[in-house]
Amino acid sequence: METMNIRMLIAASLTAMSFQAAAQTVTLKVAHFLPAVAPAQQKVLQPWCDALNKESRGRIACQIYPSMQLGGTPPQLVDQVRNGVADVVWTAPGYSAGRFPVIEALELPFVVTDAHTGSLAAWSFYEQHAQKEFDAFKVLAVHVDGGMALHTSKRNIQGMSDITGLKLRASGRMAAKTLAALGGSPVAMPPAQMTEAISKGVVDGAMGAWELVSPTKLDEVSRFHAEPASGMPYPATTVLTMLMNRQKYDALPADLKAIIDRYSGPPLVAEFGRVWEEEAAASRAKVKSRGNTIHQFSTAEFDAMKRATAPVEADWIKSMNDRGLDGSALAEAARDLAARK
């Protein structure tokens, strides 16, 4: 009888533990560098959080911290999620120069044509070539901004000669190298600072994705915009990632892990691409309605830019080779994946 009672107590204890595990709830601290009104939060991050909450019947919730509300600067977001200050971050690996060198292949000049195909390419490239450098994280998404246009306050850029001498905000290391190769003077600064910098004449404009135009009010301080013709690749792009603290993920019950997995990876990447394409179209329409000028580079201008930026790719390939990697193969893989429709 005593043995049976002990067994019943053990069984009851195990049942209680199983119930507690099943009922476990978690609130994810989600941080990023843009304002709360940005499409990144309103149209991707918040809907993602809402989907997790609904699918888990309230057991997964999010607290979103836009505009670096957890402190620090955008380059520190990677360390914030690694160290558990945030549970999830959306950021650009390129903000941490030299830390994620392989994924930079997608940021080489004239690789990415648009956000949709570019984001699918970025995820495929990550899976095939760049997983090792993200080992410390649970990777939820890898996508691109679709390519960066040139936005200027006073000069209508129609070719390389118009870029010469201009001080333009650049998002990261590869964009800065590309801009310098085109004759410009790159200036590093977060998106939140570039509109004021342009309005005060600190810089002449910015190299940035169309998605940034509305949330940063870039259209209010830029009269001129320049980009390749539709279907042609952009001079530069930014790779973006959504990363989760590995320990936070590993500590979750299996059913909550499964929910996060189901709403991450390819479906989340595709959603980023879709939203970025919509925002690009809306931003172009908005600047046109303000009477701003959008110039599309001619074939001759485009070819001249490609020739001028070829050394940027050559230098990157050499840097990869110096690390014991096949830089040429990585660059070729990025271009091949980005060209697929």
What does this structure look like?
Keywords: Signal. This is C4-dicarboxylate transporter. Residues 1-23 form the signal peptide. Pfam families: DctP. By secondary structure, the protein is α/β, with parallel strands linked by helices. It has a domain at 148-236 and 290-309: D-Maltodextrin-Binding Protein, domain 2, CATH 3.40.190. It contains 13 helices and eleven strands. The protein has helices at residues 2-22, 39-55, 77-82, 115-130, 160-163, 173-181, 191-199, 213-216, 246-250, 254-262, 266-289, 299-322, 327-339, and strands at residues 26-31, 60-65, 88-91, 137-144, 148-152, 167-170, 185-188, 205-209, 224-227, 239-245, 293-296. A six-stranded mixed beta sheet has the order 7-6-8-5-9-11, sandwiched between helices. It has a five-stranded mixed beta sheet with strand order 2-1-3-10-4. β1 (26-31), α2 (39-55) and β2 form a beta-alpha-beta unit. α4 runs antiparallel to α11. The chain is globular and about 65 Å long. Residues 1-6 and 8-22 have low confidence and may be disordered.
Task: Tell me, rounded to a whole number, the average pLDDT.
Answer: 93
Number of strands: 11
Distance between the termini: 71 Å
Percent of sequence in beta strands:
15-25%
What name goes with the CATH superfamily of the domain at 148-236 and 290-309?
Periplasmic binding protein-like II
Order of helices and strands: HEHEHEHEEHEHEHEHEEHHHEHH
Q: What is the helix fraction of residues, given as a range?
A: 40-55%
| CATH fold field value of the domain at 148-236 and 290-309 | D-Maltodextrin-Binding Protein, domain 2
Which class of secondary structure composition applies to the elements?
Answer: alpha/beta
**Based on the structure, what is the oligomeric state of the protein chains?**
single chain
Low-confidence stretches: 1-6, 8-22
Count, helices: 13
InterPro entries: DctP_fam, TRAP_DctP_sf
Protein name: C4-dicarboxylate transporter
Signal peptide: 1-23
Organism: Parazoarcus communis SWub3 = DSM 12120
